[in-house]
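Data availability (excerpt). The following record was deposited with the supplementary files.
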Amino acid sequence: MPQRFGDKSFWTFNCGDSEIRYTWKKFTLGFGNQTPWIGPAWLNGIIGSNNAPSYTKFDFGIRKTTIYFPYLGWEIGDIETRIWTGKLNESDYYDKDESNDSNMLHAMSFSYRPSIFRNLTLTLNRIILYKWKEENLLNIYRLVSFDGSNGSDSGNDEDQKYSVSLDLLFPTVGFELYAEIGKDDFSKSFFYDLTLEETAINPFHTLCYTIGSKKTFTISKKNKIHGNIIFELSSFEMSQDFQLQWGYFGYYGHGFISQGYTNRGQIIGAGSGYAGNTQ
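Predicted structure:
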């Protein structure tokens, strides 16, 4: 997306991917600007990538740890989770209204690797954007919006996105297969959308996806010449039910959070941009 306007030189400074972290056993706390890459995609992460400048955030969570069935001691699998809140800023060229310069981001990512299939990882991710207000800090715990794109129960408009992904490894042959599906304006009505009633919304409403694979190969083991072949297909196109409904900004746009899913004018998720697709 456009970096700047005009013909004058400019300079900028930020802390890049830096952070301060404290870990005690399996618990971890962090503060800084390290960019969270979320999901298995190599090129176009739906929820989080390094496409945009990093943003300041505070996070806490559990590092990868093995869990067991209570009393019986049966191994269930490995889990890892992180919850964080951060501050997003608009581009200097967006507008001259200083009251809307910043937005608040609440995020959660939870991953599970079953004990019976160590090469499979399943992940659930949730992102909510709010206007920058102190009272919105209390919404970090929320797992689902009650009415989609509008947070009337909290008195503030919001933008919420979910994604689920899987990552399947075949280490003996150097092959990886992955997929991620994203849902925009996710709310409790999604479960109603899956019903067959006439008033229900198309279940593919505001969905996007990324699928891909990676294959490692060796040209010369002696000279240590090797590489990867990566295929990735991402689609953020408008779902077809919108052709007969209201306008849609695309997965990264929003009516209430007018800057969309961006920091410093750049999309936090897939660099392919709004409502497009890449192969």
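Summary of structural features: The mean pLDDT is 86.
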